[in-house]
Amino acid sequence: MKSLNDAAAMQLAIDCARTGLGYTFPNPIVGAVIVNAAGELISEGAHLGTDHAEVIAIKAAGIIAEGTTLYVTLEPCNHHGKTPPCVDAIIAAGITRVVYAISDPNQMAAGGAQALRAAGVEVIAGVMESEAKFENRDWLTKIETGRPRFIWKIASTMDGKVAASDGTSKWITSELSRADVAQMRSQADAIVTSTATVITDDSLLTSKGIGGNPVRIVMGNTPLPKEAKILGLDAETKIIASREIQDLINFAIERGFNSVLIEAGPTFGTALLRAGIVDEIVLFQAPTFLGAGIPAIGDLGITTINERLDFEIASVDLIGADIKITLLKSNHQSESGR
Question: I need a labelling partner for 90 at 20 to 30 A (CA). Which of 78, 187, 244, 280 fits?
Fold first, then answer.
């Protein structure tokens, strides 16, 4: 069996954590693996909304957890919430070494490292911290800003058009890209769209069976047709009869969402971008051109180059014939977006 070093074992824990996307809100995604003294993998666990990752891995390891190393993406909790403290389970299992990536920024749950050290457990912090933070960026954004992370999905041509001049748009991107979007939906806690988009596209906005379906949020004052697909029983749908962005934020905070996926046209998406709450843009570009047509982003009120909205490229992937670009809002920009 392959011997794992700290980085390799933590990468496995990060991979486990990723499987919890869409299932854990209002809590973070967390992954854990247990490795013996020879560096061999014994067990793994992921938080999927019930037991914590550490507890799942400990239960899977059984009595052979004693004397092992636990790798976990987030500092083990030290408080009684829906479940007992993970620190207690770690100590009771006889685990002698704990390696974690992210120190818990939630003061209610923090203090796990200190409690473990007090019990004689060796603790190492910060292993692959940046990688773990990237995967847990939804929850970390919520902790930092007090609201969920908003991710705008755009499908456009190479020249930035989302529809032709006559309004037709299906299908700009490929079937593989649309399957990738369904995967994104399964990992989101909620999707927000506008009444105009629902009336135009009449989409289900589900994960198409890939995973769980997020809560669907429809904003706007225009009544929806009674036969609109989004009003079906495939997933919960919340109608917010308002155009006030704060009403959307308030609902998302009330529900404890970690992430909200924006699937709407340029008018609504641009309004959210202009308001400064778009934290991430996932842009699918098809290798095609329209020349004239409807641009992906409308007027942002920018009149000079110094007012531009800067994003950082996190990744660029080929999805079939299309390009998928993930853009993160630059850290130097304020919540106002400027």
Answer: 187
Distance CA(199)–CA(224), nearest Å, equals 7
Q: Express each pLDDT in 81-103 by its tens digit.
A: 777 899 999 999 999 999 999 99
Q: What is the C-alpha separation between 87 and 79, in angstroms, rounded? A: 9
- Catalytic annotation, residues: 54
Name the pTM for this structure. Answer: 0.92
Torsion sign across C-alpha atoms 272, 175, 184, 236: positive
Q: Which contiguous run of DSSP H or E holds residue 283?
A: strand 278-286
Rounded CA-CA distance 76/112 in Å is 5
Spatial separation of the C-alpha atoms in residues 114 and 105, rounded to whole Å: 14
List residues bridging with 265 in a β-sheet.
none
**Cβ proximity of 262 and 279 under 8 Å:** no
pLDDT, tens digit, 9 for 90 and up, residues 121-163:
999 999 999 999 999 999 999 999 999 999 999 999 999 999 9
Which DSSP string do the residues of 142-158 spell out, in sequence order? HHHHSS-EEEEEEEEET
Give which of 44, 50, 45 is closest to 83, Cα–Cα. 50
Q: Is the dihedral of CA 296, 299, 300, 302 positive or negative?
A: positive
Kindly state the tokens that stand for 158: 């190479």
Token pair listed for 97: 């070494």
How many distinct helices (H) and strands (E) make up the chain? 10, 15
Give me 4's structure tokens.
Answer: 């794992």
What is the Cβ-side half-sphere exposure of residue 52, based on CA atoms within 13 angstroms?
24
The length of the chain, given as a count of residues: 338
Give the residue carrying structure tokens 């473990």.
116
Q: Residue 37 CB: number of other CB atoms within 10 A?
A: 10
